[in-house]
Design goal:
Layout (H helix, E strand, L loop, with lengths): L25 H13 L2 E4 L6 H8 L2 H4 L25 E6 L2 E8 L3 E5 L8 H15 L4 E7 L3 H10 L2 E8 L7 E8 H7 L3 E3 L4 E5 L7 H7 L28 E7 L2 E8 L7 E5 L8 H17 L3 E7 L3 H9 L3 E8 L12 H6 L1 E9 L2
Antiparallel strand pairs: 1-2, 2-3, 3-4, 5-7, 6-7, 8-9, 9-10, 10-11, 11-12, 13-15, 14-15
Helix pairs in contact: 4-5
Length: 366
């Protein structure tokens, strides 16, 4: 599939009077994300079975006016355009498992959504997922082109973080359509579409990994630098697993009622390790089984992860129940190093060297 170029859209889109798109508050953005979560938007490689849905979309004059690469009217007697399952950065958009459109996230970005899914935030969500994968691959910049009159697409690109860079000519001189060039840098995308996961009682968001190591060093030493505020180092003894600081790891903060109550550390790669720690004061309330599946689902959707795994000490029954209730399966026995005891005047270097019997749990995602 070649990158799509949008022609002038005969859109009925009109911003509400008196409201600027730039005035969207963080609260409204989060509420919008919660509404989108009610419809599961995912990306997958296009399949031959999607051909009929693509051909049907071509018969919509509103849709065909956006894409110069698809003919209209489309004769169903003609050979249907088959999607290329090997396309780099090319994905089918699915809403609750149903085909909804196509998106390509390469140096030039393009996407379209079928009429039943327009004006529901599907394009924004699909663009967020595709660009998350694109920038996670190490890319630093992406581009998009739109027609001057295509205000709806320009608004979506703006919410993704794109900035207008200038005009790049016309799609077709006969159509008299000025083609605008938009540019998106990785840092701007991260700022506009940050990783924020909401559950009924919690908000989970990415935070900077403090200097000095990963989760196992932060929690027991309480070297949190304002990240969390817990009373005593002994509370860290219920940690799920010991990591000495995973190289390239990401840290997620769990907040409930406006205050931090836990941390999640995610390792790098398509099959990352995971460690989770919850404040003892909120354990036993179902927070773990509420948060962990939501985090794993969002990470899988955003970054096309194959699986997530965690090593759990056999003596940590609560953690084993948490992972099993969250869809993980026991894979194989492992040795798990316990957390260091950081109480004043104590050391347990022997325990760190010897380790404990544990179990590796894995959740298959894609």
């Amino acid at each position: 599939m070649t990158p799509c170029v949008w022609r002038a859209a005969r859109s009925r889109f009109r911003p509400k009077a008196g409201r600027s798109r730039s005035s969207r508050s963080p609260e409204n953005e989060l509420a919008g994300r919660r509404r989108i979560r009610q419809m599961r938007v995912t990306l997958a490689r296009p399949q031959a079975a999607d051909t009929s849905a693509i051909a049907l979309a071509m018969t919509d004059p509103f849709f065909s006016s956006w894409l110069s690469s698809f003919p209209f009217p489309h004769d169903r007697g003609e050979k249907d355009p088959a999607p290329d399952p090997s396309g780099v950065g090319e994905f089918a958009i699915r809403v609750d498992g149903h085909f909804a459109g196509l998106v390509i996230a390469a140096p030039e970005v393009g996407f379209w959504v079928g009429s039943p899914y327009r004006r529901k935030g599907v394009a924004l969500r699909a663009g967020t997922l595709a660009l998350s994968r694109y920038f996670a691959s190490g890319a630093e910049v992406a581009y998009a082109r739109t027609q001057l009159s295509n205000s709806a697409m320009r608004a979506t690109l703006e919410r993704l973080g794109f900035k207008l860079e200038g005009a790049s000519g016309t799609v077709d001189p006969e159509q008299d359509g000025l083609l605008l060039l938009h540019r998106l840098e990785a840092a701007d995308f991260a700022a506009r579409r940050p990783l924020i996961i909401s559950t009924p009682r919690c908000v989970i968001e990415r935070v900077a990994v403090p200097s000095g190591g990963g989760l196992s060093r932060i929690v027991p030493g309480l070297a949190l630098g304002g990240l969390l505020d817990f009373k005593a180092a002994e509370q860290a003894r219920g940690m799920v697993a010991h990591f000495s600081g995973m190289q390239g790891a990401s840290m997620l903060r769990i907040s409930s009622g406006g205050r931090p109550v836990g941390l999640i550390e995610i390792g790098p790669g398509r099959e990352p390790a995971l460690a989770i720690w919850l404040s003892p004061e909120i354990r036993g309330r179902g927070i773990g089984t509420e948060v962990l599946p939501a985090v794993c689902t969002e990470l899988g959707d955003r970054y096309a992860l194959g699986s997530i795994w965690a090593d759990v000490a056999m003596e940590n029954r609560a953690a084993r129940r948490l992972f099993l209730h969250s869809g993980f399966v026991a894979e194989r026995p492992v040795m798990v190093r316990p957390l260091p005891d950081t109480r004043e005047g104590t050391t347990n270097t022997d325990a760190l060297r010897d380790g404990l019997g544990g179990m590796r749990f894995r959740l298959l995602l894609n």
